[in-house]
Amino acid sequence: MRYRRRGLDITSHTLLILCVIVFFLPVWMAIVAATHTQSSLYTGVAPFWFGSEGFGNFLAVLSDPVGRLGTDATRLLVNSTIMALGIAVGKITIAILAAYAIVFFRFPFRMLCFWAIFITLMLPVEVRIMPTYKVVAGLGMLNSYTGLILPLIASATATFLFRQFYLTVPPELLEAARVDGAGPWRFLRDILLPLSKTNIAALFVIMFLYGWNQYLWPLLITTESDYMTVVISLKRMLTSADNLVPWHTVTATALLAMLPPVIVIVLMQRYFVKGLVDTEK
Amino acid sequence: MATFQRHRLTPWILLAPQLAVIAVFFFWPAAQAIVQAFYIEDPFGLGHEFVWFENFARIFTSFEYLRALGVTALFSVSVAVGAMSLALLLAVQADRVIHGAHSYKTLLIWPYAVAPAVAGVLWMFMFDPNLGLLSAGLENLGIGWNHRVNGGQAMLLVILASIWKQMSYNFVFFLAGLQSIPKSLLEAAAIDGAGPWRRFWTVTFPLLSPTSFFLLVMNSVYVFFETFGTIDATTGGGPGGATRTLVYKVYEDGFEGYDLGSSAAQSVILLILVGLLTLLQFRYIERKVQY
Amino acid sequence: MMRFTTSTLALGVACASVSLSAHAATEIEWWHAMGGELGDKIDEIAEEFNDSQSDYEIKPSFRGDYSETMTSAIAAFRADEAPAIVQIFEVGTATMMAAEGATYPVHELMNDHGADFDPDAYLPAVTGYYTSSDGDMLSLPFNSSTPVVYANRDILAEAGVDDVPETWEELGDVLTQVVESDAASCGMTTTWPSWIQLENFSARHDIPFASEENGFGGLDARLQINETAAVDHIQRLKDWQEDDRFRYDGRFDEAAPAFYTGRCALLMASSASLAGVRANAEDFEFSVNPLPYSSEVIDEPQNSIIGGASLWVMRGKSDEEYEGIAEFFSYLSSPEVQADWHQFSGYLPITNAAYELSQEQNFYEENPGTDVSIEQMTATEPTENSKGIRLGNMVQIRDVVEEELENIFSDEVEVQEGMDNAVERSNDLLERFQRANS
């Protein structure tokens, strides 16, 4: 017997569909605006249907310098990709190693190391932004990919999550490996990493989004347009002095900026949800 | 737990990258922030004066700081409550329908991938006082919309954009939580004659409360830090400081006002605040950490 | 075979020219905040200078908006990597000036490095902002503009108005006519409210914005806008807001679209917005008019003050670099280069010669409206109230003032209360600046 009712079902569907539509509305408005010219946008209320430009504005931002930036959106997207991948790969790599050391080894100061790593969880880069900026400037890393990536790797979220996962690995596995004469590196490579595949995929999605969507940090340290990310370029377009907001290019760029992470999340949804829900329950 | 012994060096090699990164980009700057908080310094670093706790005293007596505190609290609560209740409502619907729960998940999950700044830009376009669709609609209803002068409306704008982005995160959790509730429990309640409304409040909701508490903390953290992008791209903390959060103020005082001492002191205060929040989180829901 | 030889040859030539220029020219870094077309123009100016001689090479680089450029220059100075020349917006002047160990005043630089430098050649209304109280030029004005009024003539005609009045009092009547005749739903709007409605209002009426000659006289200057006619002016705007004669539309340039779309009849904005207005006012006739004055406060209005940016020279560079900068600044101030930059960008010329040259070239006749700002700037000798504003932490002070204006225009506070708050909060910042720099 089911405790469901048909009438309720229809209400539920209606409500859900309505919300799906409302959630899509801002994107729809942006898609439509991106197909207009600046002057047709400024004639009155923003249009609800496509304009004359088609993909013209998209092609224009991808190939010509955007706004006052002196660089095109292709470059911005490449920078964002490098940053997001750098953060995702970097964070996962050092996290796998560090968590491995903490869980599978006994050594002096182990707990101190654990707490030193753990405490970084409490302070996102936003809180220590000024001094971090000074350190990075002192190291000559302003306007560089290393400067973009390294400070954001310095939070131990991933390390912590891998530790949680390693703790669930049956001790028999390690015993068996030791009996077979496997050293720590072989155990990591042949047994632990294959076991962690799903977790790595899930973390990859989360960290890729985290990296791609970063705002404050890249805003501060990329003053040269060669290293600017696509999310930051939006802010630069919105604040151009003595000028109208070029909404037709702003919306086109905004859509380009959201496309890669949305594709990643939709394609890897399974891992993403698993990563979120499993690691946090 | 079984461990490797007799490998003295290996753990240090494994830990080295992580420790190096946090030493240079975490502990060093954090220490500098603490030192800087006790100085008044000119922007170029040519002269500075040790002032003990004066920076802190100024902050706590400053109307702007207390206002930013209030703004942050209002903003956090609104976004958390808004995003969570909407998510719960939708998750319950999605859990209830026989077909399509998965499709709805796909159709609702994507805003989570959108950068907060981009979310802000999209909503700002809809509410642009001169061009926006929604602002024009409101004007037709006789409600003038201008978030550049009306603080309440500016706040509403950033809240909406933040809810829009954050809802999906909560939705995923609530849906997973709902789906893990044994159906037999609900069926038993149904046999006892409980209607859907009562079943929700007596069975489902209590079982969801750990998830809810966890989400509450996560949402506050989100509002605290990640909404910086939304605010900076849309309202810039204005009008009249109506949307200036604590993190925004750290940035403004440090990078636009070059008031390094005050900015550092605010960082230290935030550091303590967030530390407390994290401890709370660990105290009540162990092992659930994700920024 | 043939292809092989040509490319080898080309390679050889390339190597030769690279080593030649590396050997000969001293590189001078110039950080600026001009994107887009203005940025291209800067590259062009630098290139022409580089081609005109072989000893120095100016290397311009775009560093984001004004605030970001200043922040990165300061951070770079602290990391010993400062550029030789940096473009700093007018509100950063006091901060740069107070950093005596970091900046090299232009008048000293020009004298030390033997460039022919005649302070009298410059337009005092423009250079005054960047001059010490002794009359020494601290930084070289680069892009300066001043507020003017843009009027939608079609709307005015529809309302039966022929001329844009010169005084605020008359303007009030005219805007009532505009709104009541439904020619437009809003009378006037303004960009940069603090700059136009307070800083410039005070200058134009010869009343102090702050004590100590608006800060030119010393670090102990404090704001005075809560005790002058500026309060009445904000009250006037507030009253006008009630009956739609005034519309508040943001701190920066957000107000411009309200003028372009015909919502507002008048726009008060920077003279450098002329190109933008011309490009966007497709459907209507517009005119450029001087900033109004209040006949109750002053009989003959003073000059307005400038906004924009100037070029600062940083310390810690080699003598060769400074000689190069001196030569470059002379080049930049030459009538031809100045006139070209002025005519291209819409910014004010910085020398008399450039102004005269533009007159000779009939630039103002061919481009009506371009001379309004210059005449408004040069009609009178600047007084201590209209020379400019020289306040520490001015970036923040402007934010504070804008914020309190927003509180006033959104009915959060009464006008006097808002102005008092603005002054109190700003004075706290001034006090702090004084302490950090003494």
From TrEMBL, chain A:
<feature type="transmembrane region" description="Helical">
    <location>
        <begin position="12"/>
        <end position="34"/>
    </location>
</feature>
<dbReference type="GO" id="GO:0005886">
    <property type="term" value="C:plasma membrane"/>
</dbReference>
<dbReference type="GO" id="GO:0055085">
    <property type="term" value="P:transmembrane transport"/>
</dbReference>
<feature type="domain" description="ABC transmembrane type-1">
    <location>
        <begin position="77"/>
        <end position="268"/>
    </location>
</feature>
<keyword id="KW-0812">Transmembrane</keyword>
<comment type="function">
    <text>Part of the ABC transporter complex UgpBAEC involved in sn-glycerol-3-phosphate (G3P) import. Probably responsible for the translocation of the substrate across the membrane.</text>
</comment>
<feature type="transmembrane region" description="Helical">
    <location>
        <begin position="82"/>
        <end position="105"/>
    </location>
</feature>
<feature type="transmembrane region" description="Helical">
    <location>
        <begin position="191"/>
        <end position="212"/>
    </location>
</feature>
<feature type="transmembrane region" description="Helical">
    <location>
        <begin position="112"/>
        <end position="130"/>
    </location>
</feature>
<dbReference type="InterPro" id="IPR035906">
    <property type="entry name" value="MetI-like_sf"/>
</dbReference>
<protein>
    <recommendedName>
        <fullName>sn-glycerol-3-phosphate transport system permease protein UgpE</fullName>
    </recommendedName>
</protein>
<comment type="subunit">
    <text>The complex is composed of two ATP-binding proteins (UgpC), two transmembrane proteins (UgpA and UgpE) and a solute-binding protein (UgpB).</text>
</comment>
<keyword id="KW-0997">Cell inner membrane</keyword>
<feature type="transmembrane region" description="Helical">
    <location>
        <begin position="142"/>
        <end position="162"/>
    </location>
</feature>
<keyword id="KW-0472">Membrane</keyword>
TrEMBL record, chain B:
<keyword id="KW-0997">Cell inner membrane</keyword>
<feature type="transmembrane region" description="Helical">
    <location>
        <begin position="264"/>
        <end position="285"/>
    </location>
</feature>
<keyword id="KW-1003">Cell membrane</keyword>
<comment type="similarity">
    <text>Belongs to the binding-protein-dependent transport system permease family. UgpAE subfamily.</text>
</comment>
<feature type="transmembrane region" description="Helical">
    <location>
        <begin position="199"/>
        <end position="225"/>
    </location>
</feature>
<feature type="transmembrane region" description="Helical">
    <location>
        <begin position="68"/>
        <end position="92"/>
    </location>
</feature>
<feature type="transmembrane region" description="Helical">
    <location>
        <begin position="154"/>
        <end position="178"/>
    </location>
</feature>
<feature type="domain" description="ABC transmembrane type-1">
    <location>
        <begin position="69"/>
        <end position="281"/>
    </location>
</feature>
<comment type="subunit">
    <text>The complex is composed of two ATP-binding proteins (UgpC), two transmembrane proteins (UgpA and UgpE) and a solute-binding protein (UgpB).</text>
</comment>
<dbReference type="GO" id="GO:0005886">
    <property type="term" value="C:plasma membrane"/>
</dbReference>
<feature type="transmembrane region" description="Helical">
    <location>
        <begin position="12"/>
        <end position="31"/>
    </location>
</feature>
<dbReference type="InterPro" id="IPR000515">
    <property type="entry name" value="MetI-like"/>
</dbReference>
<keyword id="KW-1133">Transmembrane helix</keyword>
<keyword id="KW-0813">Transport</keyword>
<keyword id="KW-0812">Transmembrane</keyword>
TrEMBL record, chain C:
<protein>
    <recommendedName>
        <fullName>sn-glycerol-3-phosphate-binding periplasmic protein UgpB</fullName>
    </recommendedName>
</protein>
<comment type="similarity">
    <text>Belongs to the bacterial solute-binding protein 1 family.</text>
</comment>
<dbReference type="GO" id="GO:0042597">
    <property type="term" value="C:periplasmic space"/>
</dbReference>
<comment type="subunit">
    <text>The complex is composed of two ATP-binding proteins (UgpC), two transmembrane proteins (UgpA and UgpE) and a solute-binding protein (UgpB).</text>
</comment>
<feature type="signal peptide">
    <location>
        <begin position="1"/>
        <end position="24"/>
    </location>
</feature>
<dbReference type="InterPro" id="IPR050490">
    <property type="entry name" value="Bact_solute-bd_prot1"/>
</dbReference>
<keyword id="KW-0813">Transport</keyword>
<dbReference type="InterPro" id="IPR006059">
    <property type="entry name" value="SBP"/>
</dbReference>
<dbReference type="Pfam" id="PF13416">
    <property type="entry name" value="SBP_bac_8"/>
</dbReference>
<keyword id="KW-0732">Signal</keyword>
